[in-house]
Amino acid sequence: MIRIGLLGLGTVGQGVFEIVNERFLKTSNKEPIIITKVLVRDKSKKRSLQISDDLITENFDDIVNDKDIDIVVSVMGGMEPELTYIKRSLKAGKHVVTANKEIISRHIVDLLDLAKNNKVSLMFEAAVGGGIPIISSIIQILKTNKINRIQGILNGTTNYILTKITREKRQFDDVLKEAQKIGFAEADPTADIDGYDIMRKICILSSIAFKTVIDENNVHMRGIGNVTYEDIENAGKHGYIIKYLAQGLLHDDNKYSVSVTPILIKKASVISNVNEENNIILIQGDIIGEMCFIGKGAGKNATANAVVSDVLQVAAGINDYALLRFDSNALSCGIDGIQNEYYIRVSTENFDQFAKSIDIVYESVKKLKLSYSKGKIFFITEKIASSEMKNLYTKLTQCAHDVFYARMENNLM
Ligand SMILES: NC(=O)c1ccc[n+]([C@@H]2O[C@H](COP(=O)([O-])OP(=O)(O)OC[C@H]3O[C@@H](n4cnc5c(N)ncnc54)[C@H](OP(=O)(O)O)[C@@H]3O)[C@@H](O)[C@H]2O)c1
After folding, report:
1. Are 89 and 224 in a shared domain?
2. Are residues 184 and 148 in the same domain?
């Protein structure tokens, strides 16, 4: 019998509770798994699932001090008190499975060390890509390959919003409000729209794949909140779609660059056709070549499935996470060396802003395609360095009302 202490009974916690009770509580050919205690913030809250009162506690000590509990499944969210609970569980000799990307992105090495020192496992498949078994796949790929590229759509909410704007010709705020109403976007959507959620996920994947801890401060991150339907329409005229891409690159000189940015990508590419809440992750290994994983990136069942898969690994005594190493001396090189064509939209409020914006762009970029409509100017640049584009953006934001830009990707799968 494997005994679980569950921290959190929200979306993911309920999913875990249901899968474990339906599939692993009474089983003839496997060791039964039982959830013996569940920690919540508020015991009196009405729950949509049936659960005995005896199982629920508001006191973490009831779990960490229970010698019979083998595995702590930690699905609460936020940094504290969850980080402290994970550390205390590991120190108490309990295996930990978590879905918390914020904690793993910042504390991956100290927590894995703590697990190792206490001879237990720490697993976090559910922290990235929901139901896509991406971390275990990367661990497998790394056994024979060097991974030099990871790219993908890692946030279901923003992919859903971009899909809706594209298909229904609507504006960002309008679609966001609807997504919030149906529970598809958080009441505070900042973490999704400004890129923090994706940044944490690409930090975890790149840290594992490049064998070095990626500091969140070294990620070039731009939000998606000011994309308009006109941007998507213009991209479409040139044969592109707008997507929100996370990317980790390990260059030949052992320097890495990690970014989270909107991009324009060819309509025919695989990534362009991953829509709504789905995620896609592309991985390039030096022996195996390019691989592609597509699936549900979030949600109760997909995420709970990943959590329970980790629990089953622990129960079977398998701990592939112990193979993870962070001993590479790879350093960040930012994004300065990278050259791309860019799409730029400048929204102006008067003729002065309009004329100045055109002058500013012509001063920096020689070859341009330009069009305009109702005070908005749309540019497509020749290939320029990302640092030049950043400077250009700074200058434009000082003179115009609103500026959106995205690099154009022609060679993505
Ligand atoms: N939802 C997804 O699709 C998804 C996907 C991937 C990863 N994740 C990650 O999974 C984790 C859980 O997400 P979720 O969506 O299930 O969250 P959620 O619905 O907000 O549920 C959080 C649960 O944790 C409990 N909790 C929160 N703070 C607590 C505290 N201080 N003490 C005791 N209990 C506390 C809450 O108790 P009450 O019920 O009493 O309020 C609730 O049951 C997060 O780290 C999230 O990033 C979620």
Report:
1. no
2. yes
Q: Are residues 142 and 290 in the same domain?
A: yes
Judge if the beta carbon of residue 128 lies within 6 A of ligand 1.
no
**Stretch 338-343: mean pLDDT, rounded?**
90
Tell if the pTM clears 0.85, that is, is over it. yes
Ligand 1 center–CA 99 separation, angstroms: 9
Contact criterion met (CB below 8 Å) for 326 and 13? no
- HEC secondary structure over 207-246: HHHHCCCCCHHHEEECCCCCCCHHHHHHHHHCCEEEEEEE
Q: Which residue has the tokens 């609507």?
A: 170
Per-residue pLDDT of 216-225, as tens digits, reads 999 999 999 9
Q: What is the pLDDT of residues 267-279, one digit of tens each?
A: 999 999 999 989 9
Question: Where in the sequence is the domain holding 143, given as residue range(s)?
Answer: 134-296+325-332
Do 67 and 197 lie in one domain? The reply is no
Q: Which of 201, 211, 243, 296 is catalytic?
A: 201
Catalytic: 91? no
Looking at the CA of residue 103, tell me the nearest atom of ligand 1: 45
* Residue 399 belongs to domain with CATH number: 3.30.70.600
Q: How far apart are CA 300 and CA 32, in angstroms?
A: 22
